[in-house]
Structure prediction request, 500 residues.
Amino acid sequence: MKTLSFDPIRADVAITEKEKSAALHANALLHNGQGAGNDFLGWVGLPSALGEEELQAIETEAARLRDLAEVILCIGIGGSYLGARAVYEALSDPFNLLHEHPAKPILLFAGQNLSEDYLARLLAAVENRSIAAIVISKSGTTTEPAIAFRLIRDEIEHRYGRKEAARRIVAVTDRSRGALKTLADREGYRTFVIPDDVGGRYSVLTPVGLLPLAGAGIDIRSLLAGACEMERATADGVPFDENPAARYAAVRNILYQQGFMIEILASYEPQLQYLAEWWKQLFGESEGKQGRGIFPASVTFTADLHSMGQYIQEGERTLFETVVSVADPEHRVKIGTAPDNLDGLNFLTGKRLSEINHTAELGVSLAHADGGVPNLRIEIPSIDARSLGTLIYFFEKACGISGYLLGVNPFDQPGVEAYKKNMVALLASPASKRGPKNYAGNCNPLGCCDRRTQEDPTFRPNKTGVKIFVIFTPVFCKTTTIQSKVHCRKPPPTQDIFLE
Prediction:
């Protein structure tokens, strides 16, 4: 059963034999482990390799959580969160919270931000609901989910007691080490393993995604069946013209070489909004390094035609568009007749809303292509678990191939650590406690000061005559470097006022 097709329908791209060969070679590297990042290739054969014992363990634990809780709180960030949310939002009733007695537990998410209001409102919303939690973290020390878990764990222990809390909290974490694993062993939480050879953004088909989805009543076997189908369709040795992931990767890299630096993933189904968010992390973290990479963006049409449509049609010609099209929606809604026809839409009488939606998709594709925006099209038959499994593996495989074609390691993310180091350093060593005092004119609010004098050529007057110079100095025990501009009306004191 074929559940996905790819067509560079309006991209005007001719793929040479050399480019086909390069894409197939990149695909082969994913299978033979000879490429960069080869210690993170466990996802390549994962759908077909997941054993029945592990699958049953996930389903059994999910059923137990469903019996315990009306709301399951899924705690994670990045790859520990986006994949599960993408599938859940695509397959769930978006108006589920309006139903008095939902048939399945509601899956809510925490740990993906540091918003005080978000977490306060989340805890208030579940105050009168029975709750359980799935916390997902390899280390247990990533700031956002660790803070959320601390607060949610306190709430569960306060409500149910420590012993019962151990029944209501499940950890998906490292096999043998890390803060979360240590805590889980001490408290008696049930645990599932994040495979060592699968990176976060490729982990949705591991317990990272499967457990919360199964807890919410999603058919994870159908999800995996779809992924298995695409695993076979993109296997090493499949000819280029029959391999949709290789074709997509090749086309997007050709467009990149032609100066198309931005890819917009578009959908006409709002249920796929979080699939686009997952896709952005997948490609953004995998390709955006060494000064290279296509910038991933997303839109939901037709809504965003009334915000981004103008730019896409007539803005900078540096973007191309990939449309995820759904052939047949789940429901049937037909347009009726209005006796007065004041809106002039009686010519649509009897048509299904999906027919109008597909017509809009075609019209937009033609207009954007005419405006110089190459268009690619991915079609799935419907929004169901099997189709989503196919789509997820398609994007994962295409991303791996595309990264190798680009010449980067698609399985690391060195740039992500920069903000973490700065944030942890600032939180751990606040300048108000350790920084210099009484030099507000010479130091920024973080307490970073500069020992250079006004004779330094970096000093330049701004429009107000205030001197401006740039700080670039070690801060907080060599853990980070902060660059900022400071406005000074006089040279700093001669004594050493640096943070050491």
Q: What stands out?
A: The radius of gyration is 26 Å. The first helix runs from residue 17 to 32.
